[in-house]
Amino acid sequence: MKVGLFIPCYINQLYPQVGIATLELLEKLKVEVVYPPGQTCCGQPMANSGYENESEGACKNFVENFKDFDYIVTPSGSCAYHVKKHYNIIEQTPSVKNVRNNIYELCDFIVNILKIKDVGATFPFKVGVHKSCHGLRGLRLGSCSEIVGDSYSYIENLLQNVNGTQIMPLSRADECCGFGGTFAVTEEAVSVKMGKDKIKDHLDNGVEVITATDTSCLMHLEGLVNRNNQPLKVMHIAEILNSQITETL
User: What's the whole-model pTM score?
Assistant: First the structure.
C-alpha cells in the first residue's frame, strides 16, 4: 500500500504540528507514506467563495501530484469532501477518478482501510468531539441526529481506545460551530454567536479538550476560546491519536 499524504494549506501555514502528528501516526501504524512536494491547495477556498472555475489549476495540480497513489490521506474532512464531490469541474480522466475514489480523511482511513481500532495512544483528559459539517454530513464520518438509524462515529471509535481519554457527551453533538469557510467572514456576527454556543456546550459538559477532524473549525473555536480566556484546550484528532501524554496539559 502506497499512501500519499495531503496537508491542507492552512495546516501547512498555521498548524504544522497537525501535519507532523499525522505523518508520525501513519508511520507508527506501519504505513508507507509519501509527501509529494509539489502539492498546493485542493481548490476548496476558491470554490467556496464562488470562484470554482478559477480553481481548475489547483484541482489539476492536485491530481497530478496524487494520481499514482493507492490512497490519499488528509487530516481534513472538508478537503477530502471537496476532492470527492467537487472535482467534476475538470475532465474525468482515469487519474481524476482514481484520486476522487481513493482520498480519505485520517480517521476514516484508519478505521475502514487499515481496520485499526487502537492506535496505542495515551491522553488522560475529558474530550469533547466537534463533528465538523463536511465530515459528518458529507463524508458520513458519523451518524447525524436528524436521521433515524444506528449511531456511530469514526473519531469516537478511535478515542474510545485511547488510554485515559473520557469522551464527554454534548447536548447538541452535531451542531455547526459557525466557521463555514468564508461564512465566518461574510456573516461574522452569526458565526461568532454559533461558535460561542458551541463552546458553551463543551464547557457545560465538563470538557477539557475540544477535538475534531478539521483544523479550520478548531481554529475558529480556538480564537473564541482564547479571546474570552476560557478553560479549554483545542487539539486536532491527529495530535491526540499520536499522543503519549500521561500528565496534565
Answer: 0.93
